[in-house]
Amino acid sequence: MIRINDIYMPLGYTDEMLAERSAKAIGVKRSDISELHLAKRSVDARKKNDIHFTVSVELKVRNEAAILKKYPPNKVCPANEQAYSVPHLSPRAHRPVVIGFGPAGMFAALCLAQSGLAPIVLERGSDVDTRTAAVDNFRKNGILSAHTNVQFGEGGAGTFSDGKLTTGIRDPRIRHIFRELVRFGAPEEILYSAKPHIGTDILRNVVKALRGEIKALGGDVIFDAKMTVILRKDDKVTGAVYEKDGRETELMTDNIILAIGHSARDTFGYLREQDIAMERKIFAMGVRIEHLQEDVNRSLYGNFAGLPALPPAEYKYAVHLPDGRSLYTFCMCPGGYIMAAASEPETVVTNGMSLHARDAVNANSALLVNVTPEDLNGDDPLAGAALQRSIEKAAFISGGSDYSAPVTLAGDLLGSRLSDHFGKVKPSYLPGVRFARIDELFPGFIAETLRDGLPLLARKADFFAEPEAVITAPETRSSSPVRIIRGPELCSLSLRGLYPCGEGAGHAGGIVSAAVDGIKCAEAVIGNG
Ligand SMILES: Cc1cc2nc3c(=O)[nH]c(=O)nc-3n(C[C@H](O)[C@H](O)[C@H](O)COP(=O)(O)OP(=O)(O)OC[C@H]3O[C@@H](n4cnc5c(N)ncnc54)[C@H](O)[C@@H]3O)c2cc1C
Description:
Helix content: 25-40%
CATH topology of the largest domain: FAD/NAD(P)-binding domain
Structural class: alpha+beta
Largest sheet: 7 strands, mixed
Number of helices: 12
Bound molecules: flavin-adenine dinucleotide
Distance between the termini: 38 Å
Strand order of the largest sheet: 14-15-18-13-21-19-20
Strand content: 15-25%
């Protein structure tokens, strides 16, 4: 098979047109191609008068060797995808334990199960169906479950998300992860889309199917089971204790993959008490901004906006201020909703999600400012989490103490005013919102960066100049404020057999990199016979 890169295709092209252009690109007849599939497709909207798709294809064709010789490798190259495989092992005296069933824990457990090591997964939240009911109850009635919510439960923090699979890392395991996701029910298009996403409606079934395979291979996934103690002898793991239905159960194990995400502050507190080596890391905080998706489409697609061939437009921007701070957009959700993402009582946290169709009226995105270890007082490794919590609590009060989120209009943030009604953009956050001075929730440098950065963003994209855009606060959980330090074999520096993993441990950011880290930790456990 060979791959042809970067074929220009008009909007609304058909499969046959693609086959014809592919044949033309390598100087063969259409009938010489026996098989063809999409390898990558992106929207090129750089020129507003010529928006089109850029497509790469993989195909079987006569005389592949001759064609490869004829064209430069950046245009035509061999299509060699390497299959990922794990060694098959005999069961060990003690089964490995995976704590947390988010993307990192899921892919760690799947990999361990496929190798024959029958992992036991402990997840403090509930299975995805029970969890969906709890999340709906919070959004409709403002009743938060502190144990099952948008952060905790089957699928982890990614379940009620946009399911964006974009990542800044490069790793051969990514292709394998995408193929597995498709096997478990994700749409095939994630295999070729330049900006792949699944959507929360499909993700919920994907995580269930993935759990089904772990169980079919001899693993166990125990929900509503919070790990409370790591058992150790000297500097080596010997087991774990978990609490379920008020009862404590002990498991013997030599290997624990600790994939707890960034919101398990009680578990981080326990790890600090146990002298597990941790350090502060850079994280980010800010707000969510909502615009009308049609305004974003018009800005980015010009006259092509609204054509059915084009997906809802996405964006990603950063602006840099003279004081060295930056304001950047993050986790943009086209046609989505702002989610109530709190996991602790009397706090308000925002994040973004969308359904696969991305067909809601608003586009939303986080507007974030980095917080460095130097911005924090004292030397507590969990100082960042303490700052996050204090902002979340202040937001709860500011929102009216009923889990409504504080909101302001973009124009009001810049003019230090406070409106009492919405304009063209209506907020999507549930259970409710309340007008408030959101700049007062944050340390001065974040409020100032938001105020100074927004007009600079408007120079990059005109919808950021919209005074009626709605800003909902606070977005505090976009990244982990702490790193659990690990050595070259991925074990904790303090405890052999403990593998800090994924986003919460500070070794990933986002669904895909967390899943990659999960597989890496599983490989380390497999190698640690
Ligand atoms: C609403 C929302 C939208 C998002 N959208 C995107 C997106 O579109 N794309 C993207 O790449 N990223 C997105 N993210 C971020 C993404 O979800 C995370 O980066 C990712 O889930 C991190 O994976 P993880 O496995 O490391 O941790 P998590 O997904 O946080 O999973 C950790 C799990 O560990 C469990 N746990 C914690 N402590 C214990 C304990 N003591 N015992 C047992 N279990 C425990 C938790 O309940 C949780 O289920 C979004 C996040 C949110 C909240």
